[in-house]
Specification:
Blueprint (H helix, E strand, L loop, with lengths): L2 E7 L3 H13 L4 E9 L5 H7 L6 E6 L5 H11 L4 E5 L3 E3 L3 H9 L5 E10 L2 E7 L2 E3 L5 E3 L14 E2 L6 E5 H7 L11 H11 L3 E12 L11 H18 L2 H25 L2 H13 L14 H20 L1
Length: 319
């Protein structure tokens, strides 16, 4: 079974040699690599067009930066294979990882996605991300960040796969509506994961698959005006879009506290006004987002999600 690797690129020429060299090592399982270029002004496209790889490369050229979500969706629609490996350009793949991911995701019909074990590129003894968790405070947490690589060695269910190194089933992506183009970037994978869980699917960590990740290669830093505002807006949309009214009412105090504490955090970081502007934008534009339609047959799945949110909140408060 082969996969379609889908990778957005924006001025990422400096990462492409390492990226493609590592994919060449795992080419046996790659049917195609789809690069969606978001209006790069460097020599990214020249590099792709003038080099030879061990697999077909499809280059989709956008005239402007459409964002992560629209770019990945473009690649998914173009893909020929039923397994989509969403992979950031600032990564290096360990040989054999794709086979491990295919073996796991194909082992059960209720598996929606599997995430590779993401390690820090500049310190390969430390974990970058082994699954994103979400809680009642509407906070997302990278599981395992800065833990040693000898931890998290078992296949476990995670709340959300990080789309920087995750494999999905294309038919299920199409069933669920793929990534939400409105999000541009950030929180789009959590939004998708919630929709998958509402419909009874699972997301798993595949620890045998290893990806070394530089991180913040496009946005430039962990905290900046662009990222803080966009993530705040999108987090409002995630709650509005996916949580039914009864659960919004039950969780209101936690949601309020979560957004308020985050605001105070960003005030200390010098981004208080930017974060608040993102919240206001999310609230004022929420009606442009298509809400996930509530279906009574999924009631038990909503309760399972609520239970997971409670457990994640308790774990966070115990830290």
């Amino acid at each position: 079974m082969k996969v379609s690797v889908v990778t957005p690129n924006y001025n990422g020429e400096k990462f492409l040699k390492t990226f493609f060299d590592s994919l060449n090592e795992d080419s046996e399982y790659i049917g195609e690599v789809i690069i969606v270029d978001n209006g790069s002004e460097d020599k990214s496209k020249d590099y792709i067009n003038t080099n030879t790889f061990n697999f077909p490369v499809v280059l989709i050229e956008n005239s402007e930066n459409l964002g992560f979500s629209p770019a990945v969706n473009q690649g998914i629609r173009k893909a020929k294979y039923d397994y989509i490996f969403s992979l950031n350009n600032d990564t290096e793949l360990k040989k054999g990882s794709i086979k491990h991911m295919v073996d796991l995701i194909s082992s059960s019909e209720d598996i929606f996605s599997v995430q590779a074990k993401m390690l820090q590129y500049n310190n390969k003894e430390l974990i970058d991300d082994v699954g994103d968790e979400y809680n009642l405070l509407a906070w997302t947490k990278k599981t395992g960040e800065n833990h040693n690589t000898n931890e998290y060695v078992d296949v476990v269910e995670i709340f959300s796969s990080c789309a920087g190194a995750a494999m999905y089933k294309k038919p299920l992506l199409e069933e669920l509506g793929m990534f939400d183009d409105n999000f541009f970037a950030y929180m789009e994978d959590v939004d998708l994961a919630i929709r998958s869980k509402i419909n009874g699917y699972r997301n798993l960590l595949c620890p045998q698959a290893v990806v070394y990740h530089i991180g913040s290669a496009t946005s430039g830093s962990r905290y900046n005006e662009f990222k803080v505002k966009l993530a705040a807006r999108n987090n409002v949309w995630v709650v509005y879009k996916n949580i039914p009214i009864p659960l919004k009412i039950i969780n209101f105090i936690f949601l309020f506290l979560g957004f308020f504490i985050k605001y105070l955090f960003f005030v200390r970081k010098g981004f208080g006004d930017i974060y608040f502007a993102g919240i206001k934008e999310g609230l004022s534009t929420r009606n442009k987002i298509s809400k996930t339609k509530f279906k009574s047959k999924n009631t038990i799945n909503y309760l399972k999600i609520e239970y997971r949110l409670i457990i994640n909140t308790i774990k966070f408060l115990k830290r």
